[in-house]
Amino acid sequence: MQDKETAIDIGKSIAQSALNTNTLLIASSDFTHYESNSDAYRKDSELIKAILSLDISKFYAVQQRLVVSACGYGAIASIMKAVKELGATKGELLKYATSGDVTGDMAAVVGYSSIIFV
Predict the structure, then answer these.
(1) Taking the model in full, what pTM does it have?
(2) What pLDDT score does 92 carry?
(3) CB 62 within 8 Å of CB 68
(4) Distances 43 to 12, 26, 111 between C-alpha atoms, Å
(5) Spatial contact of 87 and 20, defined as CB atoms under 8 Å apart
(6) CB of 81 within 8 A of CB of 8?
(7) What is the rounded distance in angstroms from the CA atom of residue 6 to the CA atom of residue 11?
(8) Fold type of domain 4-17+27-117
(9) What is the pLDDT of residue 42?
(10) What is the reported pLDDT for 36?
(11) Please, which pLDDT band fits residue 115 given cuts at 50, 70 and 90?
(12) I want to staple 82 with a disulfide (CB 3.0 to 4.6 A). Which of 15, 64, 69, 118 is the partner?
């Protein structure tokens, strides 16, 4: 279940479990799957903006409006909620790329990013 309410509940539970511990929280998901490189960059950049702002409502709105095929969007939202509960105020994009940036095949790519929350 990757709906917003479930993700928020899980994020709260994770935050409570991690409180006062030295815990590293990680969410893992690809972003757009098997679309053109330009479409992947366009869709993923909108989703990443929502992640960086820790705005879960906007994150879900973008994911649904653009039909971003990120397979683990619920995990991302859960960690967004957890880190926000633990005091993070924003995310910082470390890197975004697609499989096309590596293989040169821009017709059907998968998007990837790394983000840290501070």
Answers:
(1) 0.94
(2) 97
(3) yes
(4) 28, 22, 10
(5) no
(6) yes
(7) 8
(8) Protocatechuate 4,5-dioxygenase; Chain B (3.40.830)
(9) 98
(10) 98
(11) very high
(12) 15
